Amino acid sequence: MNGSARRHLIWVNHTFRRTDGQGRVNLEVVSRLAGRYDRLTLIGADVPAELAATEGVAFVETLPRSLPTTPLRHLSFAGRAGRAVRRARASAKSAGARCVIVANGAMLTGPVDVNASHFVHGSWKANPAHPRHGGGARGMYQGFVTRWNALWERRAYRQAGRVIAVSPQVANDVIDHCGVAPQRVCVIESGVDLDTFTPWTPDQGSPRQGHEWEAARDKLVLGFCGDLQTNRKNLDLLLAALGRVDGVHAFVLGGEAGSRYPGLVNSLGLADKVAFLGHRPDVAKWFAQVDVVVYPSHYEPWGLVVPEALASGAAVITVPQVGASTLVRDGENGYVLSGTNDVDGLAATLRRLAESPGLVNQLRHAAPFSVSELTWSRTADAYADVIDRAFDAAPDYP
Description:
This protein has helices spanning 21-33, 49-52, 70-94, 121-125, 136-159, 168-178, 235-242, 261-267, 283-289, 305-311, 343-354, 357-366, 376-393; strands at residues 6-12, 39-44, 57-61, 97-103, 114-117, 162-165, 185-187, 220-225, 248-253, 274-278, 292-295, 315-318, 334-336. It is α/β, with parallel strands linked by helices. It has a seven-stranded parallel sheet, with helices on both faces.
């Protein structure tokens, strides 16, 4: 490609916002890529006003439509986003610019230069914990949606010039479940905001203050953060282990309205060990105050909770099914259990930590250092490297 040619980057995702995992990754990356290219067009439902107002950035809003099923909503988005992509590409060509198109999974019906994979539905479908195995109308619907997404994403990844996987686990899933050639897949781990997620410091006052902490005094304090509407985040494992261990208290962050877990906690007699905090805007504060964050998700392509907890000075207990489990070193900054059903292993680990405050302090002290180089700037630089190569090889789409 002529080095003097103008470069127009077109980026598609459902959302660009910090309250959504995939949306958070996209927002952090594109915010750092703005200014590196002559034009950056963002296509999706929402973008922070300050980013949309940045020089050289254009935002094409594609608001979600109120349709009865997830497939219909996604198809509607694909149609409108596809038209926006074609308009942006035509505008760039008329200005003599070269285009690269970035999408995220099953999002468009046509080919793109770079596709970032944050989730592989084919892998989740094969997981024994998938809701389809539970039967009933909900299980049947979830099974249909996952199969439909798996077929669409298989086509999307195979059509992409390059696939970015958020973890080695996802890279393997893209290769095994979607049939993408290994040489077309690369791994770029998501970063962590090291300015927001930091250990507790004396200038923040005394930690563990307030009525929520009364039941947690002099105990090993655990944190759990995730969606409570389904079983995928696997709060079940933590609750099963809590019934076997004394001297522990767990704070659960996530929307409990409509969730079965508050009732399950009561039926298991764990009300004195578990406190539900709901959705919290100050997650970083809670991570900095708990001793250990437990994150045993049945299927988690990456899991921003893991590096955010470590950066905040919390040890992490997780499972191999979590992509970010590669950041956890047994006995150094946390523990990786044998699997998502390892109740014995989790209970034994919690019991050991509850009896060893010195070990807990050692793990917490080491935690932030283990992710000190995992910055969003590093992630964005890695994306830029892939995108720059795509500019050199970008085809002229019809």
